[in-house]
Amino acid sequence: MTAGFVIAVDGPAAAGKGTLARALADAYSLPYLDTGLLYRAVARRVLDAGLRPEDAAEEAALRLVPEDMQRNDLRVPEVDRAASIVAAQPAVRAALLERQRVFGREGGAVVDGRDIGTVVFPDAPVKLFITASSQIRAMRRHNQLNVGVELEGAALEAAIAEIESRDTRDSQRDVAPLCPADDALTINTDGMSAAEVFQKACDYIALRRS
């Protein structure tokens, strides 16, 4: 299944896996795939059609085109919620699974998501699980969408609740739940800079390649 060198980067929302995955792709000259964008694009299609995320998501997944992943309205709260719902549907995951595998099968890739090391590329030579506390992740997600606006008090509590609700949906779904692979290196990014996380991952990759 894994002909090329695949680095699987999994973890919950706003833990820092995307930042790390992009840096690793640059460092090792590998193509990068953010699988979360696939599910966000499916969710966006469903919402644009005026449907509920619980309904008709399989057809949206089958009709996905590259331009869908290039939209600038995929990282907004309503898509966050809808993407988590459509990602829990077995038919949607099945529709997108081969697309993800083809991406890294030949020349290798850095692929990030929630089930890359457990389902998409279970024999990837490098598996990383990136996590952080719900408070830190809530603040990071807020800062991505609201630059310069401080998050505190009731707004912070609501953001944490939203993050934890997403975690529950992702980790308790019947198909491909969010969890670290048995042989993944888990990195908790609380209190770590992006450079420190990157270096820790590179050190581990060097061990796996030696």
TrEMBL record:
Query: Where the protein is mainly located, per its record?
Result: cytoplasm
Q: What Gene Ontology terms describe what this protein does at the molecular function level?
A: ATP binding; CMP kinase activity; dCMP kinase activity
The answer to whether the entry has keyword DNA damage is no
Its GO biological process terms? pyrimidine nucleotide metabolic process
For this protein, what is the EC number? 2.7.4.25
Please give the catalytic activity noted in the UniProt record: dCMP + ATP = dCDP + ADP; CMP + ATP = CDP + ADP
List each coiled-coil range.
Answer: none
For this UniProt record, give its keywords in alphabetical order, as a comma-separated list: ATP-binding, Cytoplasm, Kinase, Nucleotide-binding, Transferase
According to the record, the segments passing through the membrane are none
- Domain Cytidylate kinase as annotated: residue spans: 7-205
Compartments (UniProt record):
Cytoplasm
Q: Where does ATP bind?
A: G11, P12, A13, A14, A15, G16, K17, G18, T19
| Pfam family membership, one | Cytidylate_kin
Please give the GO cellular component terms listed in this UniProt entry: cytoplasm
The family this protein is said to belong to? Belongs to the cytidylate kinase family. Type 1 subfamily.
Protein's recorded name: Cytidylate kinase
Species assigned in the record = Neokomagataea tanensis
